[in-house]
Amino acid sequence: MTRKFKIGIFDDEVKFISTIRSLQEEKLKIFDVFMPYPVHEVFHLLKRKSHLPTAAYFFGLFGILATLGFLYFASVINWPVVYGGKPFNSFPSFIVVTIVVTILTVTIGSLALFSARSKLFPGRDNTIFDLRATDDKFLIVVDTDLEDISIAGRVGNIMEEQGAIEVIDKEFEKVET
Amino acid sequence: MYNRKIRGPLVEGNKTMGQITGDVIFPLDTNPGLWWYIAFGISSLAALFGGYAIYITVSKGIGTWGVNNTVGWGWAIVNFVWWIGIGHAGTAFSIFLLILRQKWRTSINRSAEAMTVFAVMCAALFPALHMGRIWLAFYIFPYPNTRGPLWVNFNSPLFWDFTAISAYLLISASFWYLGMLPDLGTIRDKTVSKIKKAIYGFFSLGWTGSSRQWIRFESLSFVLGGIAAVLVVSVHSIVATDFAVGIEPGWHSTIFPPFFVIGAIFSGFAMVMTLMVLIRKIYKLTDYITDNHMDAIARILIFISLIMGTAYLTEVFIAWYSGNEFEMFTFFKNRMTGDYTLQFWAMIVCNAFIPQLFWFRKIRRNWVGLLSISLIINLGMWFERYNIVITSLSKDYLPSNWVSYHPTVIDIGVFVGTIGLFATGVLLFMRFVPMMAISELKSVAHIGNKKED
């Protein structure tokens, strides 16, 4: 089944943002927007949030507990060795390894989560709505495959009024984003 | 905006976004020219020489090096510390400046990170070879082994070092690659060649630049930046601890960790400057890596150079103030005067005095001046490590132990090899990867350029 989209192409950040506003005022749902660089206002308008920092915190917590636990197990329970008369559980000298391994855990965990949530991995073929979005144009993509046929026309009008350099209709067999 | 008043535009020439993309990916689409092939040939030959030296080292043992029972850490450790120091710049550059929201990092961070990855690879080679039986290197992994299970000594800075360097290599490589995703997507969408499209498409992992990808990308950059900043400081502190926990005179000092970290950032920034001067000259990227960028790096170098000078003075002062005769001997009879006078004073002149020339605006804006001073700093930093490793070891507490140290051809070969490896890596980077973060440049291109600012 094909899906129809209306794509507005902008070469100006200001016009691009004002179009998003107008579309939202008209209660028209935006499928997604594509940008050559991150524009923070867009995140506010589209209410995009990332919980990655929270997840990273828990990866860190896990990293600390797992590393300290392992060091305790290896040096106290499994094979205690006296090094220079220090206690088996010589906590201060475990701190460095714990910090480093925790950082590694957070990095690997966050990268994996990022890859899974953003669906970015080798061989992934995400739908490219317009090739220029990674170069110098901003795209607003609206799903027009809806019951109300008049929506497509209204979206197109708003985009043109607000200064889109091009408004195009495209159909995709399969959409992956 | 305050950015303009201090530094001027970050990208000169009122570039449009399309022009930025075009300028940055231009070197990827064109024949690099004869100089590239010549440089690549020379650096590969150097790397081959290193390969030969490593072959001899592994097949015959480290007896082929200049090390002996007294000076157990010779050139290998000098070079290891030197490379790992250089390897600090990339991450220091991109991460510290990212966290401090210094936008001028955008045209430099990619190359600095690439440099980090190659330098850390070169660095890691030395301790591995120094183990002697490199095929047993896996003994340092803490895994439930069949020897007991006998675990490694978790209290040893040498083990911390292994952990920290492996983590640092992994993290800086992933940070570098992550930053490249949007740019690889750009190349995929711009190129007309089908092969390139497939290759860059594969490596861009399906990047589209959607708002969802961007917000996660940004928040991941900050998470990784924030935690890797801690790692940058800890890696070289641990290298310093390798020395500081030793009881050798001249090593057993609490100043070592901060002194080493600052030294690392110093040599790394100098190497970034060397590369940047060459890149902007060869590829004519002066609109992106402006005089103001070089000026900013030079100013940081003056500041760090002053800290280095202070650290050297502090070491000498504490040696005298401690009243410890071995410390005093090391500093006054074995470094400032004695057999290693040249290395000591070369270090002082190259690191503390010559960089002070950057106080002159003319030198900060002259590429010959920038290039030569940055090279001198790297030379000076090499002498600093030589000074620390060799002088302390060669003359310790017992005069009957005293031995002088001379590197052999194999020592020199391994070092030349790593320089070759580094240069080869940098040349390949220039040829196949966008040298600047295209998407980040687009976001800062307007700063200082807009009329209303």
How would you sum up this structure in a few lines?
The complex is a heterodimer of chains A (177) and B (453). With 177 residues, chain A is α+β, with helices and mostly antiparallel strands.
Describe the structure using short key phrases.
heterodimer, A: 177 residues, alpha+beta, Alpha-Beta Plaits, 5 helices, B: 453 residues, mainly alpha, Formate dehydrogenase/DMSO reductase fold, 70% helix, 0% strand
Provide structural commentary.
The complex is a heterodimer of chains A (177) and B (453). Chain A has 177 residues and is an alpha+beta fold. Chain A has two domains: 96 residues, Alpha-Beta Plaits, CATH 3.30.70.260; 66 residues, no CATH class. Chain A is built from five helices and four strands, in the order E-H-E-H-H-H-E-H-E. A four-stranded antiparallel β-sheet of chain A has the order 2-3-1-4. The mean pLDDT of chain A is 85. With 453 residues, chain B is an all-alpha fold. Chain B has one domain: Formate dehydrogenase/DMSO reductase fold. Chain B is globular. Chain B starts with a helix and ends in a 9-residue tail after the last helix. The mean pLDDT of chain B is 87.
Question: How is the topology of this model organized?
Answer:
The complex is a heterodimer of chains A (177) and B (453).
Chain A: E1 3-10, H1 13-25, E2 32-34, H2 40-45, H3 52-78, H4 91-117, E3 138-143, H5 150-161, E4 166-172
Antiparallel strand pairs in A: 1-3, 1-4, 2-3
Helix pairs in contact in A: 3-4
Chain B: H1 2-7, H2 17-29, H3 34-60, H4 75-99, H5 109-130, H6 157-190, H7 194-203, H8 211-244, H9 256-282, H10 291-322, H11 325-333, H12 341-353, H13 361-364, H14 367-394, H15 409-432, H16 438-444
